[in-house]
Amino acid sequence: MTGHENKVYRLKKVLYGLKQAPWAWNRRIECFLLQLDFNKCTTKYGVYVRAIACDLMFVCLYVDDLLDTGSNTTNINEFKRKIMLEFEMINLGLLTYFCGWNLLDITYGMRLISRFMDHLRVPHLLAVKKILRYMKGTLDYGLLFSKHGRSVSNEIYGYYDSDWCGDKSDRKITIVVALSSCEAEYIATLMGACQALWLENLMSKLKIRREEPMKILIDNKSAISLAKSPVAHGRSKTLGQDFTFSET
């Protein structure tokens, strides 16, 4: 500004599009949720939990979209009323689709095919046709989550497998080199154990109590024996200390 070259503007409000905008919005909405007695989940980013007596309420934050659910409809409606008074928001009603989870069964296939969009060939077209036939044949399929958990098993199973460099397209992103199928299966078991612990911590933060431990299932007898009783013999001595985590 002419005549005030030695002065600078002080930004009183973060404008949309600036680098500071996401951070400022996240801090603003987080302070508001904390004032409403929500606790920030340290295991999963963007998840807030509030427990009042036997009533639970969850809020999932994704950029500027909010997903709220809970065990008490009155508390949910009251939360919506308060947040719409604080911010300019629109209630979109009941949840129908969430982050593409309605097509979770074909997510991997679609991602794999999308890698070749700039150079499609006949095998890729045939793969897309298989996905479309699968979608047409499973239109009436779905998952039913009972409101009362007594009729649903509370056990959680994890299935892990590794084919030891059988996928040529993904082989280049392998984080560690396995020298045998036993090592490949054992390392996959380790990754499964890490995911199981993360899920256990997340469920505990969400006030979901479980008595039974998670079960990890693998289909390699050598890897199972190695996990139960690790012995530094010729086939396993190349495994470092990092991969003995699954013993616990």
From TrEMBL:
Residues 3-113 form the Reverse transcriptase Ty1/copia-type domain. CDD domains: RNase_HI_RT_Ty1 (cd09272). SUPFAM superfamilies: DNA/RNA polymerases (SSF56672). InterPro entries: DNA/RNA_pol_sf, RVT_2. Transmembrane segments: none annotated. This is Copia protein.
